[in-house]
Specification:
Layout lengths: L1 H7 L11 E11 L2 E8 L6 E2 L2 E2 L7 H13 L1 E5 L5 E6 L7 E14 L11 E5 H7 L3 H12 L3
Helix pairs in contact: 3-4
Length: 151
């Protein structure tokens, strides 16, 4: 009984706005198959989704779309409702935590040149490959949630 309770328990904790970020989950459907765009983080080189702070003059979803353009060089239709969220370290040592809401972004244009081109790699992957490449289980969970829409 306790095991089942703990498996589904998630404390609702309000996060101060300065400890919130947004990210985009760039995707495309090619020949009926979902493809997800991953980028590398600048520090560790792990595969992630584009993410960053919420711009003062933009909504959360618009800020996520801006991050996708700056970090991954893609533009498209961003959804207004996040598909999921996760908590991660925001400082170099991971001591400060930040909650990140992820918004699906249907990619319409992939740019040849973008702001962080020389700082990151980008890679299109089908869902099964993305699940293997993503080191963070929370990111795998979010990618899987998007995949369920296309089953």
């Amino acid at each position: 009984m306790i095991k089942n309770f703990l498996r589904h328990w998630s404390p609702a904790v309000e996060t101060h706005p300065t400890f919130r970020q947004v990210g985009a989950l760039p995707y495309a459907v090619v020949d009926g198959r979902l493809s997800i765009l991953l980028i590398t983080s600048r520090r560790s080189g792990r595969w992630i989704f584009p993410k960053g702070g919420i711009e003062a003059d933009l909504s959360a979803s618009q800020s996520a779309a801006l991050e996708a353009m700056e970090e991954a060089g893609v533009v498209g239709q961003i959804e207004d409702i996040p598909i999921g969220s996760y908590r991660t370290g925001s400082d170099r040592d991971g001591s400060a935590l930040v909650d990140v809401d992820i918004y699906p972004l249907l990619v319409e244009t992939q740019l040849d040149d973008w702001k962080e081109r020389g700082q990151r790699l980008r890679h299109w992957a089908v869902l099964s490959e993305a699940q293997r490449l993503l080191a963070d289980p929370a990111l795998v969970r979010i990618a899987t949630a998007l995949g369920k829409r296309f089953n």
